[in-house]
Amino acid sequence: MSNISLNTKLLKIVKYGDPILRKRVKDVIDFTNLSIFTQNMLKLMYEEKGIGLAANQVGVSLNILVIDISGMDEDENLKPLILINTKIIHTEGSISMEEGCLSVPDIRADIVRPETITIEFQDLNQEVHIRSFSGLISRVIQHELDHLSGKFFTDYLSPIKKSMISKRLVEISKDGFPSTGIIV
Ligand code: CO
């Protein structure tokens, strides 16, 4: 399979309700055009004021993530992260943080996830890295990795909270946005 088509693909955010977001992605084998594709993903993410984006959120079912939390975090991680074929190999701790999602607009919720993660991933040069992350960046990576396995942050909500947002999820599926925002 060749990735030539990634070069010219016009990117837009795929919203909740599109079946591609429920499908587990495939690993990248052909790295052709990944550099330009991930730059285009970053550009779209900045335009949409996101801090992380998974490839299936732009309709490409491959294990690719882009992340940039430099607007939120002054300490470190100032460069955008481009992660290919990422796998979590270790987690530690547990912490609750509020999440939102470009594919689930205007809905935010507190979600409990591991605090620290260790991941294995490839860079654009196909080199393999193992790195650990904590704090916001760990949270963003976990949220984006869920996208790659067909999951949404809203899947973790209790039945009561799910029922509070169910009408809005239907609206997003139909119109791309809910009639009103909500934090649960
Ligand atoms: Co998301």
Give a quick summary of the entry.
The chain has 184 residues and is α+β, with helices and mostly antiparallel strands. It has three helices and eight strands.
Task: Give the SSE layout.
Blueprint: H1 34-47, E1 52-54, E2 64-67, E3 81-92, E4 95-101, E5 104-113, E6 116-122, E7 128-133, H2 135-148, H3 159-175, E8 182-183
Parallel strand pairs: 5-8
Antiparallel strand pairs: 1-2, 2-3, 3-6, 4-5, 6-7
What does this protein structure show overall?
This protein has 184 residues and is an alpha+beta fold. Helices cover 24% and strands 28% of the residues. A hairpin with a 2-residue loop joins strand 4 (95-101) and strand 5. The longest helix has 17 residues, at 159-175. The model has no long low-confidence stretch (mean pLDDT 94). Cobalt (II) ion is lined by residues 101-103, 143, 147.
Name a few traits of the molecule.
binds cobalt (II) ion; 3 helices; 184 residues; globular; alpha+beta; 24% helix
Poorly predicted regions are none
Widest beta sheet: strand line-up: 1-2-3-6-7
% residues in beta strands: 25-35%
How many β strands by DSSP?
A: 8
Largest sheet: 5 strands, antiparallel
Give the terminus-to-terminus CA distance: 42 Å
Helix content: 10-25%
Q: Tell me the number of helical segments per DSSP (H or I, 4 or more residues long).
A: 3
Average pLDDT: 94
Bound compounds, each kind once, are: cobalt (II) ion
- The string of secondary-structure elements, in order, is HEEEEEEEHHE
Gyration radius over CA: 16 Å
In terms of structural class, how would the helical and strand content be classed? alpha+beta
Shape by Cα distribution: globular
